[in-house]
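Board work, copied verbatim: Alpha/beta fold hydrolase
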Amino acid sequence: MTPSLDGSEPKTIAVTSFDGCTLVANLFGRMDKGAIILSPGGGQTRHAWSGAAIAFAREGHFVLCADLRGHGDSDRAPDGAYSYHDYAQDALVLSDWVESQTGVKPHFIGASLGGVAALMAAGKIRQDGFASLTLVDVAPKISEHGFGLIRNFMLDTAKNGFENVSEAAAFLSKHFPRPNAENRSSGGSSGLQKNLRQGEDGRWRWHWDPAFVETLYLEPEEFERELTEAAKNLIIPVHFMRAGNSELVTQEAAAHFRDIAPHIYFTEIKGAQHMVTGDQNDIFVNAALEYLARPELRRTPAGK
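↓ predict structure ↓
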């Protein structure tokens, strides 16, 4: 089967992961140039990728973007237990599904937690799980201070929620100002609503399980050790994008990554903060497409 989706309206599908957890995904585009998986960051849903997915689809790529486990419409983890290894296994399950449908191994583009999962998958579980790997503001070393700020922000708002979507948007603007917000792929307040759900009490809360924040990255030294080991084991083509104003991936962290994995291709998106795909979406898409157009990365479906 070779998927073909005309226009910008996605098709929604569900994929069962290794432990029975259902992952919900949107499909865009058609198999002309290759297949791409887009994996969002922690606290985001698949809709954060919609603008980028449409742009990739218009260039001839078949695109899948899925909600991470515990996020959006995907299942929450059994017993509220989340691990980076589980997210990595999910990434490989999605890759296998795309390959079974298209006949080609997909390129994987992961931001933040989605990138961490793919890095661990390609470096610790299956080295040839993807055709290539693009990591968006993800590196083995991350700023503990920057992560702590984001983690506390996510936990502080997870339980109390907001009176309405506008209050949530104002809160985000105050704590995470984004000078290039006009380029946000999520589409402003209407897009933000897709990252929220309204509870029985009428208040709006993030569309993810607070348990994932409470259980991940509790041991930063072990986190760095595992990702450093994974980075050293990478054998597939890797594109490392750093946000120029990243609060998580410092210039020192970027240099460390390039030192332990010297074959990676490096791009810095100037003026962007950690959420590169929102701050500088057009620049991100162009940089990703330029990389995927490299001759060594071109793939055609089996039998063509």
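The first helix runs from residue 50 to 58.
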